[in-house]
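Re: nicotinamide-adenine-dinucleotide structure - here you go.
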Amino acid sequence: MATASATVHQNYVDGQWVPSSSGQTFENRNPAKTDDLIGVFQRSNAKDVDTALDAAARACQRWRLVPAPLRAEILFKAAQIVVARKEEFARDMTREMGKVLNETRGDVQEAIDMTYYMAGEGRRMFGQTVPSELRNKFAMSVRQPLGVCSIITPWNFPMAIPSWKIMPALVCGNTVVFKPSSNTPLSALNFLNVLIEAGVPKGVVNMVTGGADVGTAMTTDPRVSVVSFTGSTDVGRQVNQAAAPTFKKVHLEMGGKNVVMIMDDANLELAVDGCLWGGFGTSGQRCTAASRVVVHEKVYKQFVREFVARAKSLVVGDGLIAETQMGPSNSEAQLQTVIKYVRIGQEEGATLATGGHRLDKGAYAKGFFHEPTVFTDVNPKMRIAREEIFGPVVSVIPCKSLEEAIAIGNGVEYGLSASIYTQDINRAFQAMRDLYTGIFYVNAPTIGAEVHLPFGGTKNTGNGHREAGVAALEVFSEWKSVYIDFSGRLQRAQIDVEQI
Ligand code: NAD
């Protein structure tokens, strides 16, 4: 298995490694050291997608008939292989994505957890059996696969997110065409190789690397039944529109602008720890990043003092070095977005309490590094308090009450994750009820989801679906209601009403 060499990698279609018909490739480079060329991947086109969809559609005819517990056995094997290679995969991932090793280990672990979880579903996938209103009639519902699934993923969780989608798709009996982000194709390749080694039959999982034109072909083709997309809200909207004419089931997980609310009775030390991890973990490049911190005015000064001091002391560097606490941005484009928003925050009149600069000297010279940045005295109307930055920038907003904090928390277009720090159970439950988000935490930051609970958001973060847990089965299967009449005569529901 090629894991870390600058070799040319191919697409995987119908059980074969094949080059793109475009004849073009793209490079995958280390965001901490751009002279480190990790690999070269196929810049595919619509023709490659066509071949992959063809293979997936054919394979589906066999795969859907494989008993779910047998499909699940392959997943179980896959999970075991990932366990054995966890460290190697985490290193590859840090090298191409940038986040620190402990976090990439967590990313790989999430893929393991999800794969085991979905392997378990192979023996559950519960439907319903209910009494019929008619005599000698049996009624039940069963899950059925939908067919070919287009899986389109971002770069910030390069193995976890593909696993959240591919594993439920497979266990439900669908086949897959997978397009990973062009910024993290090596982790996708590592995961694909695991599936091949675990015994996934040819055509069942196909991988086509490339950019938007590949994605467009995957979202418009009539052979595709499900599109599962994680990425930005702008691209998600395009995906939704592209898939609408053919009535595909579209599952969208998109941007976030998550809030931590710190009340005057909070354990401040705990809150500072949580906001550091939530705001600067993965260099702020998480859909659930704690990019807004709303603090009660009674503890505002103390929180700001401690939080800013801790942010200032974070060690920024190459994620492969043990001392590093925060890695680079994933790309020049992402770094430029951070720089742009720092400028916007200053122009809007927020106080730049720490950070605010690109790091480009010495060991930083060849990477996309930025200082951990905190804006204080932020007004919730400012763009830095409303728009997703996806970088190491946290906006601290003062508030006077829980009610005001909740209003600020809800006052953005996104609805992924929110959290409250308080010792008061009444406030905790009120906030839990009133924050319109898909995920809520008490006395913890906005990140830290576990694979057996639904994951996703409201408003412009999602379109009503959830991934992870049993909720993922709703995306990748559909219900068939089955009635079996063993009376031997015509019985008409709602018409032949029997008197007791
Ligand atoms: P992106 O939207 O730029 O790209 C996501 C994927 O879509 C990539 O594979 C990309 O190549 C592909 N793509 C681009 N144009 C396309 C098109 N027209 N049709 C189909 N596919 C297309 O996002 P990104 O920069 O890779 O990731 C960052 C974003 O992802 C952030 O907004 C973040 O909040 C979001 N995200 C959300 C979640 C969640 O669960 N809600 C999780 C992780 C990341």
